[in-house]
Structures are given as structure tokens and as C-alpha cells.
Amino acid sequence: MTGHDRLSADGYPARPSVRAGNVIRLHIATSADLFRVDFYRYGATPQLVGSVIWAGQPAPSGRFDEDWQWPAYDFSVPRDWKSGVYIAVLGGAPPSGPPVLDARQGRLLFVVTPRVPSGRNILYKVPVLTYHAYNSAGGGNLYSAPQVSLRRPGGGVGGPVKGLPDAYDPASPRQTFAHWDAPFIAWMEANGFEIDFCTDLDIARGRHLGDGYRLLLSAGHDEYWSSSTRRHVTAFRDGGGNIANFGANTCWWRVHLANDATQVECSKFPPHAPTGTDPDSSFGCPDHWWESEPENTLLGVSYRNGGGHWDGSRTPLGYTVTDADHWAFARTGLRTGETFGQDQALIGYECDGAAYALDRYGRPRPTGEDGTPHNFEILGIAPLPSDWNVAAREPGVSSPQAATLGLYESTGTVFTAATTDWARLLASDPHVAAITRNVVSRLSQPS
Question: Looking at the 3D structure of the chain, how many domains does it have?
């Protein structure tokens, strides 16, 4: 046990992002007279970048849907702090070694965005809204209530999380920064990619996408999108920006920001739905994106054409390559018809797909009946077993359920890995790593 863990303290940021050189307000409650905050930037490895000692103040816990209004502490972020994901670790003594950054208490996550446009080509979007949808601090989340507060502990780190353990990576809960985003970011920076960071709330407010970036990245589980987030990302694509989504179940639920973007709301259930209704497999849900504006039109794929396997180990699936001559497979050594990722269960725990039919050569082609662009290229396919959970499907769509790796070109290019677990294999599967390198390198090139 390190010095960080000997003190009972918890907290949350007033806002999940801050420009370098500005002040971020942290809300912290502790019964200690004094407490220490150590700031770590998460990159190829966690780096301690600063510390501060403050006088402690106690405060009671609140409800999941209210601002907890804990004591406020203002911290001036140094102008030279590099854009990135930062974890504030609360403790009572100097660190004796690297802390567990994903502890369920005493951790606060915030993103430092560039002070001025940096000239870098890659912007990584951190899915704060999805973190808070699963955050159960205060006794509720968006699976038990129609609204939750962002001003409470949790939201990526430092709070209880709804969901079952991951049989393939039990070290951290699924719906957290450590589980999905951290391994992807660590791989990116270890492989020399220079990237800036923002949150989905920044994009919802129209920030950063106009600062000259060529590529917008996300990874893992970016499930909850506001209308303004989607509008700005679509405009980025239409202006020639590229998008690479190394995840799945993306843009599945529409959310609404309230109380100056400190509360998030989502109406999931059909009117008069009985208790126990599964909204994923229901029609008439007000905030299903696909029922009003299919996410396929932006991303090329949807969870309703894929599925999920949430509990325990699953049938190991990988992608079968449909066109090894495509640039995405350069230097992988893969051939058309070969499968990669199967030995490590690449497909899952949730995956997305495009409605498709086989052409006369046996290659899957999008039908477009679900909103997927007709020029979407299915580069890899993984038909799902019958024991996977599947989402609702509109009448008339007869496509098999399958994860579909692919891309399409509009004004910009949009790539999807279509599986949440892509980042988990980055460090261990050379094919996954090579494809990632090809996609990021090509789509981040200056126009």
C-alpha cells in the first residue's frame, strides 16, 4: 500500500477539461486536516508532473442526479503542460511508487487541451459522457435513471461502475479510462504518434475540431453522443477531416446536456414500457439514434447489426480478411480469406456491423438499407454465433449479424474497427498493431 492509499478522500472536477495555462476547479472532500494531490499525465507511461498540498474539508455524499457541491480547490494548470489525460491522485504522503491510477476512490480524471492550436494532426476524443452513463456514484446511472450529474466522483476513474467483469482483462472495470482508452493512448505515444486530446463535451461546444486537425480518433466504448457532438463531427468529415473509430457500440444513445452541461439526460424507454423492458432490443425509444438518424450515415456501422456478449468468456472470433490488397493491410502479411485476432477473441465484448449481402464472388457488400453509405468497403467480417445478444432491428433488414471492419470516403475518410476490444490486442497482436499504424499514419497525413 502506498502513501496515496492511506487517506480517505474523494473528488471530481467541476469541468472535465481545461486549456493549458488556465485554472481547473477540483471539488474534494476529506476528513484529514491536510491532504496531497499528485498529478499524473497518462501517456506511454504515467508521469508525475506536479503536486500540491491543501487543507482538508469534509462533506457528505450526494445523489447520482445532483451536484454534490463539495469544497472547491482551484489549481492553475501550467502553460507548458502537454495536452493529455491527467489523473489527480489524492493521498496523505508523498508517493513511494506509481499509484494504481484506476482505483475506485481518490482519483479524478480531467483532460488538458492545447492552449493554442498546436499544429499536430491528430485529436483524440475522450468519451466523458459514456463514462458517466455507467458511473454509479450516488446510487444511480443512466441504466437506472433518465439523468445523472457530472459533478460527482467517478467518470472514468475513482467511482463505482455498472457492468460485469471482463474475463479477458479483469484488472479494471470495462467502462473506464484504464480499460479502453489507456492502452490505446499508451500504444500511440510509445509508437511516436503526436496527439492532442479533448473530451466529447469540448466537441459538443464546438471546440478544437476547427484547429487544423486531419484525424479525429476514438477507441473502446464511445456509446453516448449529444446531437451537437454528432453535428460537429459530421461537419468535420464534410470539411475533409478524417475519422478513425477503434471501438464499437458507438453513437448508440443520444444524450442531452442540461444545467450548463453539468447534467446528462437520456430517454431510453418506449412510452408506457413495463418494468424490465430491454431498451436495446425495443422500438420506439426516444433517444435511439438509429430510430431517427441512423449512426450508419456517419460511422458506416451500427450496434444493431452486430451484438454483444457481456458475461464471461465468449466464442473466440476474429476478422476474416476480404481484400488483403487494401492499404489498411499493408505490411501485415495477411492474405484474403485469412483470419486474425481469433486466438485472443478480438470481436467483442460488443461489436458493430453494416447490413450486407454477398456478391457473386462471395464478398460482403453493404446493402445500404440501414443507412450505411453504399461505398462502405467491408475489409473484414466476423459473423456472430447465435448465443450473442443482439439489438433491435428495423423490419425488412435481413442481413446476418456480423462485425464489419471497414471504411468509406465522403469528403473525409471514416474508418471503423467495429469492436470494443481492438485496443486490448494492440500490444500483443502484430496484425492489429500494423492495421492501426496504417490507418492512423495515412489518415493523419496533411492534406
Answer: 2
pLDDT given for residue 391 in this prediction: 82
Last residue of a domain, one of 64, 80, 113: 113
Predicted local distance difference test score (pLDDT) of residue 3: 39
Helix (H) or strand (E) holding 343: none
- CA–CA gap between residue 102 and residue 200 (Å, rounded): 21
Q: Are 110 and 126 in contact (CB under 8 A)?
A: no
Neighbours of 365 (CB within 10 A): 16
Q: Has residue 427 been placed in a domain?
A: yes
CATH at residue 372: 3.40.50
Q: Which residue positions in the chain have pLDDT lower than 70?
A: 1-6
End-to-end CA distance of the chain: 50
Q: How far apart are CA 439 and CA 447, in angstroms?
A: 15
Q: What is the pLDDT of residue 393?
A: 73
Cα–Cα distance measured from residue 371 to residue 294, given in angstroms and rounded to the nearest whole number: 6
The predicted-structure confidence for 4-45, as pLDDT tens digits, reads as follows 445 789 999 999 999 999 999 999 999 999 999 999 999 999
**Boundaries of domain holding 370:** 214-443
Grid cell listed for 33: 486536516
Q: Is 40 helix (H, G, I), strand (E, B) or coil?
A: strand
Kindly report whether the global pTM for this prediction surpasses the value 0.85. Answer: yes
Note the pLDDT of residue 1: 30
- The predicted structure's pLDDT at residue 6: 52
Q: What is the C-alpha separation between 224 and 209, in angstroms, rounded?
A: 19
* Interior angle at CA 199, CA 125 and CA 408, nearest 5: 30
* b/e per residue 24-51 (b: at least 16 CB within 10 A): bebbbbbebeebbbbbbbbbeebeebee
Please state, as a whole number, how many other Cβ atoms lie within 10 Å of the Cβ of residue 72. 12
Residues constituting the chain: 447
pLDDT of residue 34: 96
Report whether 422 contacts 182 (CB < 8 A): no
Which phi and psi angles does 172 have, rounded to 5°? -145, 155
Quote the CA–CA distance of 175 and 420 in Å, as a whole number.
11
- Give just the sign of the alpha carbon dihedral 97, 100, 104, 106: positive
Residue 265 inside a domain? The answer is yes
Counting beta carbons within 10 angstroms of the beta carbon of residue 291, is it exposed (0 to 12), middle (13 to 18) or buried (19 or more)?
Answer: middle
CATH code for the domain in which residue 44 is found: 2.60.40.10
As given in the structure block, the three cell numbers for residue 440 are: 492512423
Residue 357's DSSP bridge partners are 365
Q: Write down which residue in 113, 146, 179 finishes a domain.
A: 113
The C-alpha cell at 58 is 469534509
Coil, helix or strand at residue 393: coil
